[in-house]
Amino acid sequence: MNIALIAHDRKKEEMIVFAIAYEQVLQDHQLFGTGTTGLRIMENTQLKVHRFMSGPLGGDQQIGAMVANNEMDLIIFLRDPLMAQPHEPDITALLRLCDVMGVPVATNMATAEILIKALERGDFKWRELNDKYKPGPGEL
Q1: Which one of 9, 28, 60, 90 is the catalytic residue?
Q2: 117 is in an annotated binding site
Q3: What is the C-alpha R_g of the chain?
Q4: Domains (ranges, CATH) in the chain?
């Protein structure tokens, strides 16, 4: 599966702890991340992360493009709800695309753990079925 790992500045340490805790699960998947988050994960684990640009510089949009092209299966996006983000429209667009395309997205640690445990159990078979019902080009 293709999995994106994104974390706002004040959530990066939390993402590193998450990646360390679930490294055995994550290592079997293709990982993508925004700039600094991806780098920090690679520095603290043996995981390989395809790094996009930093979120404010377009990384969220690059991941959004993968979602729009049905190339992303799961997103862990540890957001900081108490800090205004200069690229909030990009974040909102990414979350909206996940809703449209049926891509599971976790925005906090509790939901991230539920999704990673489901991944570990192989509970994402519904994605294969969901692909049949996704809107095609021009159907939105």
Answers
A1: 60
A2: no
A3: 14
A4: 2-133 (3.40.50.1380)
Q: Is 134 annotated as a binding residue?
A: no
Please, which residues have CB within 8 angstroms of residue 106's CB and are 6 or more apart in sequence?
75, 76, 77, 78, 112, 114, 115
* pTM for this predicted structure: 0.87
For residues 44 and 35, give the distance between their C-alpha atoms in angstroms, rounded to a whole number.
15
81, exposed or middle or buried, with CB in 10 Å at 0-12, 13-18, 19+? exposed
| Cα angle, residue 11 at apex, residues 17 and 101 outer, rounded to 5° | 95
pLDDT in tens, 45-103: 999 999 999 888 888 999 999 999 999 999 999 998 777 776 777 788 999 999 999 99
Residue 92 assigned to a binding site:
no
Q: Does the active-site annotation cover 131?
A: no
Name the DSSP letter for residue 9. G
Is 87 known as a binding-site position? yes
